[in-house]
Write a structure and sequence with these properties.
The complex is a heterodimer of chains A (231) and B (285). Chain A has 231 residues and is an alpha/beta fold. The two termini of chain A are 33 Å apart. Chain A is 36% helix and 26% strand. With 285 residues, chain B is of the alpha+beta class. Helices cover 73% and strands 8% of the residues of chain B. Chain B is built from 10 helices and 4 strands. A 4-stranded antiparallel beta sheet of chain B has the order 2-3-1-4. In chain B, α1 (2-14) crosses α2 (16-52), α7 (154-196) crosses α10 and α9 (211-247) runs antiparallel to α10 (256-284). The longest helix of chain B is centred in the middle third of the chain and has 43 residues, at 154-196. Classes of the chains: A alpha/beta (231), B alpha+beta (285). The A-B interface holds A 49, 71-72, 75-79, 83, 89, 91, 93, 102-103, 105-108, 111, 150, 154 and B 2-3, 14, 199-200, 202-211, 213. Bound molecules: adenosine-5'-triphosphate and magnesium ion.
Chain lengths: 231, 285
Amino acid sequence: MIKFTNVFKAFPKGGLALKDVSFHVAKGEFAFLTGHSGAGKSTVMKLIYAEERPTSGDVRVSGYDVNEMRPRDVPLLRRKLGIVFQDFRLLEDRTAEENVAFALEVTGARSSTIAARVMRVLTQVGLAAKAQAYPRELSGGEQQRVAIARALVNEPTVLLADEPTGNLDERATRGVFQLLRDINASGTAVVMATHDLDLVRQAPYRVIELQEGALVYDSAVDEARDQAAAP
Amino acid sequence: MNLTFREAMLTFKRAPLLSVLSVTTIAFSLFVLGLFGLVVINLQDALHGVEERVEVVAYLLPGAPIEATAQALKDIEAFPEVQSATYVSEDDALARARAELVELRDVMQELERNPLPASVEVKLKPGFRDTDHVAAVAERLRGFGFVDDVRFGRDWVEKLDRLRGLAAAVGIVVGAAFAVVAIIIIGTTIRMAVLQRSREIAIMRLVGATDGFIRRPFLLQGAIKGLLGGMVAIGLSFAAYLLINRYLLQSAFFNQEQAAAIVAFGALIGLVGSAMSVGRHLKRV
Ligand SMILES: Nc1ncnc2c1ncn2[C@@H]1O[C@H](COP(=O)(O)OP(=O)(O)OP(=O)(O)O)[C@@H](O)[C@H]1O
Ligand SMILES: [Mg+2]
């Protein structure tokens, strides 16, 4: 599904953001991406949705080779992904419903099916009642739910969430996190970058930790090794 | 298409001020172009008026047989360059001279014999009223046995040639310069519209919109702005034309095709201007 092999990423002005990172996220898995600020979490995300290309090494996502892919294939890859950010990235002058519909229209979905699909995901994130509200009329948690609905409406195989709870209070954080867990339970893989360690401890999910661009801990690998090392 | 149209229209709703500004700048740059166009078409009209008078006159030898002349007239009219050939008899020539040269009427009256030769006056079709064609026709007329002499204003036709060449060159250069300025201005206003929506463009890309999909509403929007600007420019030019006719001089306005061409040109540069700005933006991000 998502496979990094010896990935290095250098930014022209930034030095090495990723150093020899390798991991594999399987279909339907939930993986946390943790690490301090500047560790390279967002960079990993950008490589997954082909916003950036690796300097060296291999990034494969959903059958695409991010290194080699043609620019015109990038939109096709992104339609298989749902992407959510800390700052929601909603269009201020469109209602919740329109923001979600936008993601479908952009992919050329048949207009007769759009309304029903939009209502379905808005119901799924618990915001059907606020379909007509504009982002400024919604709380942060509600705005993030709209963003998640938008990410889901194309039925992605992977949901990428870069610090989705970074701007939310504790209650809203729990709500959004539960929503992501539900989405994962219905079969969508989720990769969630966060530095909220409470959240990470709450759930029995895969943890990948970065430190200054290097992968220093991967629960899938390290736990297996620890078990093998135990008696 | 429906969606493209809706998105393009949304721009006008969301950024009415910027849209009005774009249309206005397009209108004014096309208006300047339009004024220049008016000068050009009026100059052309004037040139045509002068060209109309280009003619070749073949003076006939005295006693040229009528039948042969009539046949020659038919032959001459069949030349590809010739619009009309008119026979002017000796008597006609005298009558004309009397009418035109009033001061000499008395002298003419006393003449025993008509000293004026008969002639054939040849007018050329538009497009053949230049030195080379005029000279070629004159040469062929000399070939007729009963033609004594052939006259045309060589200097004059040559001057006309040069004037035409100059007008065309100035027209192309100045027209192109105005068009380039108009495209740059339109490109800039569309660029502002693109920057204003750069967040939206980023989000569109994130959810998997192709560049073509992102580009289309901008192209349409640019074309519509150009179209509106073109129409306003025609309106302004018409107002200017009315004022000029009222206070300065009688002049001509664009015909329907020319007006439509200006509006279409507005739409085209709107399209080109937005294609350039959006293309640059999409490539950079
Ligand atoms: N476009 C860029 N140009 C130059 N350097 C960059 C760029 N993007 C990221 N970096 C650098 O790469 C490193 C990793 O950044 P990244 O955004 O991936 O960190 P992060 O783990 O997401 O941090 P945070 O938790 O603060 O979001 C940082 O040192 C950053 O300065
Ligand atoms: Mg980050």
